[in-house]
Structure formats: structure tokens, C-alpha cells
Amino acid sequence: DIQMTQSPSSLSASVxxxxxxxxxxxxxxxxxxxxxxxxxxxxxxLLIYAASTLQSGVPSRFSGAGSGTDFTLTINGLQPxxxxxxxxxxxxxxxxxxxxxxxxxx
Amino acid sequence: QVQLVQSGAxxxxxxxxxxxxxxxxxxxxxxxxxxxxRQAPGQGLExxxxxNVYNGHTKYSQKFQGxxxxxxxxxxxxxxxxxxxxxxxxxxxxxxxxxxxxxxxxYYRYLDxxxxxxxxxxxx
Lengths: 106, 124
Prior knowledge:
The complex is a heterodimer. By secondary structure, chain A is mainly β. Chain A has no helices and 11 strands. Chain A has strands at 4-7, 10-13, 18-25, 33-38, 45-49, 53-54, 62-67, 70-76, 85-90, 96-97, 101-105. In chain A, the strands form 2 sheets. In chain A, strands 2, 4, 5, 6, 9, 10 and 11 form a 7-stranded mixed beta sheet that branches. Chain A has a 4-stranded antiparallel beta sheet with strand order 1-3-8-7, with no helix packed on it. Chain B is mostly beta strands. Helices cover 0% and strands 52% of the residues of chain B. Chain B has strands at 3-6, 10-12, 18-25, 34-39, 45-51, 58-60, 68-73, 78-83, 92-101, 109-114, 118-122. In chain B, strands 2, 4, 5, 6, 9, 10 and 11 form a 7-stranded mixed beta sheet that branches. Chain B has a 4-stranded antiparallel beta sheet with strand order 1-3-8-7, with no helix packed on it. In chain B, a hairpin with a 5-residue loop joins strand 4 and strand 5.
């Protein structure tokens, strides 16, 4: 099984900040990497697939990068609605998720 | 519009079974696989398994092998997950999600539409 490790586990930021979350795979997964946003009481929301492709309807302040084993999700200009938990997920083999990164208000 | 609507919350005793439904609409049911994911209280997302709706082929996380069965009723455009021998650790919100993919060259796969979630509570 492929293990996904995110860092940090949590971070505090202010509106307008640039935020970067890192995800590392336990083996090379090319660019078969997706990012989700999760808010309490809501279903996960797909932000990015194929490491860097923005899902339709997702604001352009979200971006993804990386290939192989190391990936990043960046939010440029954090908005109030972006405070949430973010998960990476590999789709190279049977799916697995990172443990999540909580983004909360500083 | 694409919708996945799940059945309501369940309360079960340890050792019991539960079957959750996921009724889909707004797309051709046979064209997309369905995955199941859960989130226990205070925990992260955990993948359970998936079903190829076209041919009925299933694949499960090793953790759930033998205690979970995913099925579909294509006439009703509905997917199901059944969990057996429930334990308190199975208390979680269970989600179904539709799998989409890009071109057949790279075949990037992603879960683009999700059900609203079904809370399963297991307690004596």
C-alpha cells in the first residue's frame, strides 16, 4: 500500500496569506495526486486532480504542483471560506489519503 | 445536475450489520465507478473500496476485506455498501463518491461528486 504523509498537520494563517501544504508519497506515483478540501458536516470537495489541474469551479487561488513523490498545494490569498482541512489522495494504485492538514485562523 | 443522495443515519449495536444506499442521478450510472470512503470522529478520510458499475468488479482496502460488500442496482442507479460485524470503531460518516477519469492515455482518476454522508453509530 502507498502511504501518504502531509505536513504540517495543522497551521494558523490570516486572511490574505499564502499557504503551502506538502504531501509525500511512500513510492513514486507520477502525478496521480488529488487534493480535497473538507469542512465539518460537508462532503469532501475536489480541488485539484492530476497534481496540478484545477477542478472546474474551483477558484484560481488554489494551485498544485509536484511529481514523483513530493507534492504541494498552495493557496494564494487565503479567504475566510478557505479555513478547512485539506487532504491529498493518490490515485496511482488503490486510493489512499494523507492524514489531513487543518488550516485555521491565526 | 449530478447528485448522489445517501440513506439516513443508522444506530446499530456491536455485531450487527448495516447497509447504506447511494442513489445517483444526472449522469449515466454505468459510466462511472463508485467508491466508498469514511471519516471517523476526529479522524481523517479512509478509503473503503470501489465497484466498477459496468461489470460489477469490486476491490476493497485490505482493512475491510471480509467485512464489507459493495453492490449496485443498475435499474435503480443506486450503489450500496454493507458493513458486517460492526464494532464501536466503525462509528463514522460514510460517503459514496463518483469516479471520473481523463483521457485513456494517462487515465487520471478522481472523485468528483460525493454523497452527503451517512452517519453510522455503533454502541451497546
